[in-house]
Specification:
Elements lengths: L1 H14 L21 E7 L4 E4 L3 E10 L5 E9 L5 E10 L3 E9 L5 E11 L2 E6 L4 E4 L3 E6 L4 E4 L8 E8 L4 E7 L18 E7 L5 E7 L12 E10 L6 E12 L10 E5 L4 E4 L4 E7 L5 E8 L10 E9 L6 E5 L12 E10 L5 E4 L5 E4 L6 E6 L4 E3 L4 E9 L6 E7 L15 E8 L8 E5 L7 E10 L9 E4 L4 E3 L5
Parallel strand pairs: 2-9, 11-17, 19-26, 28-35
Antiparallel strand pairs: 1-3, 3-6, 4-5, 4-7, 7-8, 7-9, 10-12, 12-15, 13-14, 13-16, 16-17, 18-20, 20-23, 21-22, 21-24, 24-25, 24-26, 27-29, 29-32, 30-31, 30-33, 33-34, 33-35
């Protein structure tokens, strides 16, 4: 215990500059002014970079020969604003001196700080700065704000096509690389060639605080100015500052890069959405997107159809005479399941298509890849007749090819095909002869072969005009149908006597 006391006294004496004093000296002395109180910061002794929230060790040695009680205060001073924050206030110094440590939690701090220690005894005080400064790096941030929907970019166009990419990002002395990836495993650090795999970096930015908005136009080239290979890519960003862990942000949409084949003309009209089958339940909407590549202004009509003919008269207009200027961006329309007059269409399976007419009278039509299942209830089975699509004249004994689409989310649905001499589906009171059932209780199957039927016209059926109906039932054909459809084309049975 005595040895420990002697060491503390020696440290204090050394700190006060009394290098010639013996360890034990009973002679009364009066220290020179300015040397009776001292403090030295021993840590941090070198500059350090730390992520916000990490603790920083602060250590000091203090000496006090004033004969009064003394306290130590620790201060962090921002080198940017010179704002001072007290980290530790009035920590007592025992006896004539000693040492101490403090753990500084840097959560909520940002920037470079100088650390000071102040010792106070009565009206005397001494303040010293630590040898090392501490730079606190707050968490990195990066959020994409555009594009919000999938985009297509066709290379080698004049003028060049582009996709605007926007973001909000922040960080201290950091950078971020924006890239494209064919998958969602973005493991390559942007500046580490040893880990680069299939990521393609197309742009880089310097991060600032506070976080700032930014954008650039991607024209199909990487950071080195080389054309990106055709394909569909996920958009992502990796932010890094060398202190925090790299921060990866996912884009809100994918970008498909298209390179036309030599001499391949870009379609004058292309419907890109829906790209796959979608269900539309009231009051939701389905986004329809189309592109027009023309050198003149055109008027575009959007229509829906239960078959793929689009010219047989059963088309439903959704939006008409929408003007589109040359080189316009893709146009979107949110369909709520209603026609242009505001009337909801019947439940069924629809293909939405676009058409435009040029000044010469030429008509161009285009279909999307996806169908729209308009339902009144979730998992409702649906059916739509495709063929016959136009008026077909037959003699008794000949055959009529019937084709349909059905969608049965639950499984187990059955369908019925009928022929009638009037165009009214499922009449409570028949206006003519009763519907003739030609296919009954067939299982709904998602297969091209199973979705067809060849009906041979019986000789007993008299000459005239006939209509083909289809009904689908979730379980029991004796119940009202869950969905029904009328073929767009009529069947005319010829009079053999004429």
């Amino acid at each position: 215990m005595r040895a420990a006391s002697l060491v503390v006294i020696a440290l204090a004496v050394l700190a006060l500059g009394g290098t010639c004093w013996p360890l034990i000296d009973a002679t009364a002395r009066s220290p020179a002014e300015g040397t009776v109180l001292s403090i030295t910061l021993t840590a941090p002794d070198t500059d350090a970079n730390v992520p916000a929230g990490r603790s920083v060790r602060i250590a000091w040695v203090a000496g006090n020969l004033t004969g009064q009680s003394a306290t130590v205060t620790l201060i962090a001073e921002s080198r940017t604003s010179l704002t001072r924050t007290v980290l530790l206030a009035d920590s007592p110094v025992s006896g004539t001196g000693g040492s101490g440590e403090f753990s500084w939690n840097t959560e909520g701090y940002s920037g470079t700080y100088a650390l000071y220690a102040r010792i106070q005894a009565g009206d005397r005080s001494v303040e010293k700065m630590a040898p090392g400064k501490v730079t606190v790096f707050p968490p990195l941030s990066f959020t994409f704000t555009a594009p919000t929907t999938d985009q297509e970019l066709v290379l080698d166009q004049d003028p060049p096509q582009s996709v605007t990419i926007s973001w909000v990002a922040g960080g201290l002395k950091g950078s971020a690389g924006i890239g494209l990836d064919t998958d969602q495993d973005h493991g390559a650090a942007q500046n580490d060639p040893n880990t680069s795999r299939n990521e393609i970096f197309i742009h880089s930015i310097t991060l600032t605080l506070p976080a700032a908005e930014g954008s650039f136009k991607f024209e199909g080239k990487n950071k080195d100015g080389q054309a990106v290979e055709p394909g569909t890519y996920y958009l992502f960003a990796i932010a890094e500052d060398g202190v925090n862990e790299d921060f990866t942000a996912e884009g809100l949409a994918r970008i498909t890069v298209i390179k036309p084949e030599p001499n391949e003309a870009i379609p004058a009209l292309r419907v890109t959405k829906p790209a796959s089958d979608v269900t539309l339940l009231d009051p939701n909407t389905v986004t329809i997107e189309y592109e027009v590549h023309q050198t003149e202004r055109v008027l575009v009509d959007l229509k829906a159809d239960t078959d793929d003919n689009h010219t047989n008269g059963n088309e439903i207009t959704l939006d008409s005479r929408q003007p589109v200027d040359p080189n316009s961006a893709p146009v979107t329309f949110d369909w709520d399941g209603k026609d242009a007059a505001g009337t909801r269409v019947a439940d069924g399976i629809y293909r939405v298509f676009a058409s435009f007419t040029t000044s010469t009278g030429a008509v161009t039509r285009a279909d999307p890849n996806g169908l729209v299942f308009v339902r009144s209830a979730e998992k409702q089975p649906l059916i739509a007749l495709l063929l016959p699509a136009t008026t077909t004249s037959v003699d008794p004994g000949q055959t009529v090819f019937i084709k349909w689409r059905d969608d049965d989310p639950n499984g187990g649905a059955v369908l019925r095909i009928t022929v009638d001499d009037d165009p009214n589906l499922a009449e409570t009171t028949e206006t003519g002869a009763a519907e003739l059932i030609v296919l009954d209780s067939a299982e709904a199957e998602p297969d091209e072969v199973d979705d067809t039927f060849t009906w041979q016209v019986p000789e007993s059926l008299g000459p005239g005009t006939y209509y083909i109906f289809a009904y689908i039932y979730a379980t029991d054909p004796s119940d009202p149908p869950d969905c029904q459809s009328k073929a767009p084309g009529r069947v005319i049975i010829k009079d053999p006597s004429q």
